[in-house]
Structure to design on (162 residues):
């Protein structure tokens, strides 16, 4: 299953929906993670907050290919995308295991294929290096076999990159 998570305006939704099985619009119309860990323990993979991200853990957790479209923010995800990723922590469990000779949380939905990040906006070479490292670490932590980061000169390149 291919899932696209993006922080673009609604005018891009139709194009993206045609390229994936499910889509999460990081539009800021939801609450940030409260850090209660209820999605880990009390009601696995479901947030107690009854907003559009209530089942984000399940959508993100079941993705074989996760494509994240984000504006660069100092070599990291935009605040809206980061909020969605925070709210999807329930795609793992509170238990730990070794992956790649490092300690990580066990995966609730098993391993995945591709963590792909499409970055737009102004970006320096140092920020590109930071983003590549961040995506690689996120991929390992969330059980993805590989990470890929593409830097878009402009949003006209988006459709061919999805």
């Amino acid at each position: 299953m291919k899932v696209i998570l993006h922080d673009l305006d609604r005018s891009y939704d139709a194009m993206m929906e045609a390229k994936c099985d499910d889509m999460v619009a990081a539009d800021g119309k939801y609450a940030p993670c409260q850090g209660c860990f209820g999605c880990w323990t009390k009601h696995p993979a479901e947030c107690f907050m009854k907003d559009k991200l209530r089942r984000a853990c399940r959508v993100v957790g079941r993705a074989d290919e996760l494509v994240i479209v984000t504006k660069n923010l100092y070599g990291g995800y935009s605040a809206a995308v980061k909020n969605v990723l925070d709210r999807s922590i329930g795609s793992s469990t509170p238990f730990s295991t070794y992956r790649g000779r490092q300690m990580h949380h066990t995966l609730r939905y098993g391993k995945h294929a591709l963590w792909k990040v499409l970055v737009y906006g102004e970006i320096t070479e140092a920020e590109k290096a930071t983003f590549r490292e961040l995506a690689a670490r996120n991929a390992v932590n969330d059980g993805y076999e590989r990470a890929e980061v593409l830097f878009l000169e402009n949003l006209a390149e988006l459709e061919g990159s999805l």
